[in-house]
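Fold tokens
===========
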Amino acid sequence: MSRPEVAEFLLHLEKERGQSPHTVLAYGRDLAAFTEFCDRHYAGAWTWATVDRIGIRGFLGDLQRRGLARRSAARALSAVRSLYHYLQVHHGLTVNVARAAKVPKLEKRLPTYLDRGQTEQLFEWAELRAGAGEFGPIRDLAILELFYSTGIRLSELSGMNLEDLDLLSDQAKVRGKGRKERIVPVGSRAVLALRRYLALRDGVVERTAGDRRAVFVGRRGRRMPPRAVQRSVHAMFDAVGGDGLRVHSLRHTFATHMLDAGADLRAVQELLGHASLSTTQIYTHTSVERLKKVYQQAHPRA
């Protein structure tokens, strides 16, 4: 059965903590699975205070038996821990039973990214396609350029408004996770692609009485949702044989190429909008070229 405290907690995440709709939905699914498990495990006779460690371990085991990935199971445990912390603060619960549970050990996955050759091939194809002057290909090139130039997330690009773009100063305001804002520089090629696209976009919006605020719109003038942006980018990947690549690969590519060129790790962290430096450090594993260059320059017998 549904528990009112869960709905209250999710509302708190959205309104007070400023979590993204994606995070709230994911936590909602995880907590629904947790309450359903407790209903089965305790035969319906349970409260938040009576759930014990065996129950938490049983829930994690149930997720494993259902074939859930370890990363997803870790997120589910995080959702339960956060709920119990909320219940401690707002409902007087004395013990956070989920705190002692062990997080499933995550498999280490290096980010997928495009090497220099793949990147050049992708942009050559996108530029050639945009050369015909059609709205869709010109918009898709601008999307590609902005992703690679800034390393922003899919949701950040989809949610960008015209007032967030400052093409005179070559920068953009980005609203990231937890509604945190940051300013990112926009490269010269991205600026040119955006100017070319925006000249066509204004006509589409006027003709269709579309969304006047959104930067990226479809042919009917409506803001492109994340799935529409995904489809456009994946079509470009498919055209150049980019198997296994996804939109987030452009963010990984941005970070990897920046570090390969000698960019400071903390600067890359700030550009990506990472709260923790440890999140950014995964890209150092893919920056072998930079490390080799430093070795060749510094070691006396290299």
